[in-house]
Amino acid sequence: MASNEQEIRLEREIDSKLSQNSGDRCFWWEGNWYSKADFSRLTDKVAASLRGMGFTKGQRIIVLMANCPAFPALSLAAWRIGGSVVPLNTKAGILSLVSTLELIEPYAVVMSESVCDEIGAALNEKGFGCVSCDPMGNLRISGDPKLLRQSPILTPDVSVLFTTSGTTGLPKAVPLSHGNIYHNCMGMLDTIIPIEPGDVFLNVMPNFHTVGYTIANIMPLMIDAAQAIVPAFMPPSQCVRAIVEAEVNVMFVVPAVISYLLSAIERGEAPKNLFDRYKIIITGGDRLSDYLHDTALRVTGMDVVEGYGLTETSPAIALNRDYASHRRGTVGQFLKSCEWRLKSDSGADSDTNEGVLWVRGPSVAAGYFRAPEITAERFVDGWFNTGDYVKVEDGYLTILDRVTDIIIVGGFNVYPQEVELVLAEHTGVKTAIVVGIKSHMSGEVPKAFVLKDTGSTVTERELVNYCKERMAHYKVPRKIEFVDEFPLSPTGKILRRVLREREKL
Which CATH number fits domain 31-175: 3.30.365.10, 3.30.70.920, 3.40.1230.10, 3.40.50.980? Predict the structure, then answer.
């Protein structure tokens, strides 16, 4: 184990694992197993290609690819060179991508061939260099090679940047160090009792999601486990195939994935014994409903346990350790390396077992990328404000409410202000307010309350289609309600809480 933060380099830790028992299984892909030696050769090839294109220490590459063997190889290759990776959603939309690229200033945008065909030319026109990459790591410059940028250098300690839209609708990024990722992986291994070397993880969560990136891609490489790589969860049949053929026995996913798999079993599209081999199934990113708990037990005889974390914490903060100590309704116990404290809304230390959760530790990021004002709001003297109102009893953590307005759709964060800005750009919309409403399948979905502009005849269908063209599918409002006015506070502030409560009636 690395002795201190300054010495921790993920590529060294992973390479040491790959050099041991190089004939062992490393990853399953499209029906075939590949060894650790295969993955080392794949990473060597990708690293040589990046160097040949001019990628150097301190640079960043954007990655727009579905899950495939090339993705973890790109990360490891970039780290060997001293650079960083920035995984993004391939369906984010060109406008969102360009604003993020302007913030990140990448050396290049590495994308799958299909994504390159779709948006490569448009990104070239915006001045960004593009590189296509197939699933097995064959890289090729697409368009003008002069667009590959020698962008501002960052410290090589930054391993990955995760981006999201902030409360203003503008992109923000969380830079995680090699030490952040390392300590989180080791902390999870130390916390979750059933996990051990040789296990097979399901790698199906999108790699731009912290669970997909850290836990499904990197953690198996760190702990000498294997992974079954699935490009995407939909359709569920390819996920079912991977679970059966690769003999998967560990799964970290959002509740929506569990819901789809259980439905597939009930419809006869997956074997009833699909989960029989599993040691543990852990969900995070959203609250696990009693319905899913009960359905899992009824359909498979196996329960699902919960964990909790955020992008800024790399991600895990707390986990249920195993089934024997699992407490239903909680997200488990804190990782040993995670310090925590509870505060009141006023910022004072809470004198009860409830309050806003603040955490610090080696897995917590230092702040946001090029955003000192936002950093100052959430990071204070090494402590990070999670924005979640929680209760702690007997060491077990329960999430009671979110202090922020974030909507969580199938485990993915949606900031209402981002959706509102898109809707407000439509000529027929005067004001739009977006809130989260309950969904049986994905936990929550966005709903928009819209005040039309004078004389506007815009319809719900038009606005939904307008949003679909401009943002990722999970951010698009599932419902739009036209209103004549909004509930206001005495100071004139629109009361989102009242709109949310209206949905419960």
Answer: 3.40.50.980
